[in-house]
Design a protein that fits this description.
- This protein is mostly helical.
- Helix content is 32%, strand content 8%.
- The radius of gyration is 20 Å and the shape is globular.
- It starts with a strand and ends with a helix.
- 13% of the residues are buried.
């Protein structure tokens, strides 16, 4: 569907259209069964996860924390897509630890 000179990759509901004058996009909701995926973080998103952890736990010191505790804290990040059973390498946790520690300073 072409709308306002843009090619949309997803079908938009009929109630969502581009009004040329005034130049506004009419409000629309996703069609039933369609979900919008916002940002989801994984174990390789060291900088982003570290920054969020620094905001969530400003009084905690990641440099003295065990990897087990670091993994548990990482799993509390709201947009984090991972679980306790993930097989991750130590360097992934070291990256998160470094980003968290340097983000606090």
């Amino acid at each position: 569907m072409k709308s306002g000179g843009r090619q949309w990759d997803i079908p938009l509901p009929a109630s969502c259209f581009f009004v040329s004058r005034p130049r506004t996009l009419a409000p629309c909701l996703p069609p039933p069964g369609f979900s919008i995926l916002l940002t989801m973080y994984t174990w390789t998103d060291h900088l982003e996860v570290g920054r969020i952890l620094a905001q969530m736990y400003p009084d905690d010191d990641p440099w003295t924390m065990s990897f087990q505790d670091l993994k548990a804290r990482t799993l509390t990040v709201p947009e984090f897509n991972g679980n306790e059973d993930d097989d991750i390498e130590d360097y992934e946790l070291e990256g998160i630890q470094s980003a968290w520690g340097w983000g606090k300073e």
